[in-house]
UniProtKB/TrEMBL annotation:
A Gene Ontology cellular-component term: cytoplasm
Originating organism: Chordeiles acutipennis
Residue intervals of the N-end rule aminoacyl transferase C-terminal domain: 66-160
Domain of life: Eukaryota
A single GO molecular function term of this UniProt record: arginyl-tRNA--protein transferase activity
Pfam families (alphabetical): ATE_C (PF04377)
InterPro entries: N-end_Aminoacyl_Trfase, N-end_Aminoacyl_Trfase_C
Protein name: ATE1 transferase
UniProtKB keywords: Transferase
Length: 160
């Protein structure tokens, strides 16, 4: 097994040289694991949503995310419902000391805290809480629907 890290932005020569092969692996994964038809667009299956109650995507998905968090915490960590309510979810995974920043030379999404939402059939099945910083991406927490544990979403998220 050989693992390479190749720069995707700006695209390096290695990235350009392996793009089609990488895309075919991705497409096959989507078709086998997620049962996507070969022509299904997949751009909306993973959404990077800024952690901000002023962001429409964050606000519209908040209840679904909080409910999924509670389901995960109770199934995986054996928390009681009072330990994983909406207030605990907000304190633990929504309140961030990071300020959102859009630097001219930074990524299109900007810097700050994000919820990387994994959608399947119109519902969120996993959320990776990440901080995007000038020199790194920090994985803060990942929670997923235990009904989909067979997909190894934690591994997929780490690789992504």
């Amino acid at each position: 097994l050989k693992v390479r890290v190749v720069r995707s932005s700006p695209p390096s020569s290695q990235f350009k040289a392996t793009f089609q092969e990488s895309y075919q692996v991705y497409k096959r994964y989507q078709m086998v694991i997620h049962k996507d038809p070969p022509d299904k667009p997949t751009i909306n299956q993973v959404r990077l949503v800024p952690v901000s109650f002023e962001d429409p995507q964050f606000k519209s998905s908040f209840n679904q995310s909080a409910t999924l968090f509670a389901k995960y915490q109770m199934a995986i960590h054996k928390d009681t419902p009072s330990e994983c309510g909406e207030n605990e979810f907000t304190r633990f995974l929504c309140d961030s000391p990071l300020e959102a920043e859009n630097a001219p030379n930074g990524p299109d999404c900007g810097y700050g805290s994000f919820h990387q939402q994994y959608w399947l059939d119109g519902k969120i099945i996993a959320v990776g809480v990440i901080d995007i910083l000038p020199y790194c991406v920090s994985s803060v927490y990942l929670y997923y629907d235990p009904d989909y544990s067979f997909l190894s979403l934690g591994v997929y998220s780490a690789l992504r």
